[in-house]
Amino acid sequence: MKKRLKMKDLGVVLLASVSLLLTACNSKDSNETPQNESNSEPISVISREQGSGTRTAFVEITGILEKNDSGEETDNTSEEATVQNSTEAVLNAVSNDKNAIGYVSLGSLNDTVKSLLVDGVEATAANVKDGSYKIQRPFNIVYKDGASAEVLDFLKYIESDEGQKVIEEMGYVSDVKGITYEALDSNAKITIAGSTSITPLMEKLTEAYKVFNPNFQVDIQATGSSAGVKSVQEDSAEIGMVSRELKDSESDLKSAVIARDGIAVIVNKEAEVEDLSLEKIKDIFEGTQTSWK
């Protein structure tokens, strides 16, 4: 009788051990599953709207924009991409989605998102200046031939060392030429329209200009690069802001490069990715690479 009791007890112990082992295995599996699922979660691609200077420059540099033998252009940005109409909207979208990726002007970058290395190079003004950071573009302004003396005076201020210092302080690449600004004491009222990427810089430039010309008045409209060009052509603005290379169709206007800017590729702060190649960026924004796995 004693022997049977011992065998029964041994069976209970074995049963309990097997149960414990199965529970441990199941627990391990349940811990690993979310990580595996996380690695395969779809990428949320955030892009700018058509007509945006930032989008035009980005798709050209990364090769997303293709030209055929006839010169016709095709923007291969994924149809699944979420389109945002301003720099601020892109920053908000990426900061609120752990799987998101987007792009913004370097000068507009803030700590709500993470900027990626591109081919191992950080997006900084210094790296834009020496050419090692490849995703970069000019900041142009356009205006009509025969612009007023007051408009030309504001442009002189931007090109002066005082104006270029503002550009440098905002994190863009400046071009100091040893030109000192001499105030005109302007009391003009002008409209400046165009790129949402250039708008924050233009606001700082006009504030600094008013130190020399306190009666100067300006209406700055963030409408997009192409809209800014159209505003000048149609005489609804004196100056247009264009954050890309100018097109042949815009050659009827005079232009000047006021700064150079990098385009930062951004992800959510929780994202594990730190560095992407230009080729991989192209794949993601075209939709051929659809997960972070």
Automatic annotation (TrEMBL):
Region named Disordered: 27-52, 66-85
**InterPro entries referenced in this protein's UniProt entry, alphabetically:** PBP_domain, Phosphate_ABC_transporter
Q: Which family does it belong to?
A: Belongs to the PstS family.
Of the GO CC terms on this record, one is:
plasma membrane
Subunit details: The complex is composed of two ATP-binding proteins (PstB), two transmembrane proteins (PstC and PstA) and a solute-binding protein (PstS).
Stored PROSITE patterns: PROKAR_LIPOPROTEIN (PS51257)
Keywords assigned by UniProt, alphabetized:
Lipoprotein, Palmitate, Phosphate transport, Signal, Transport
Regarding the membrane, this protein is recorded as: Lipid-anchor
Where does it live in the cell? Answer: Cell membrane
Q: What is this protein called?
A: Phosphate ABC transporter substrate-binding protein, PhoT family (TC 3.A.1.7.1)
- Domain (PBP): residue spans on this chain: 38-162, 188-293
One of this protein's GO BP terms? phosphate ion transport
Q: Which organism is it from?
A: Anaerosphaera aminiphila DSM 21120
What does the UniProt function comment say about this protein?
A: Part of the ABC transporter complex PstSACB involved in phosphate import.
Q: Is the Cytoplasm keyword given for this protein?
A: no
According to the UniProt entry, where is the signal peptide?
1-24
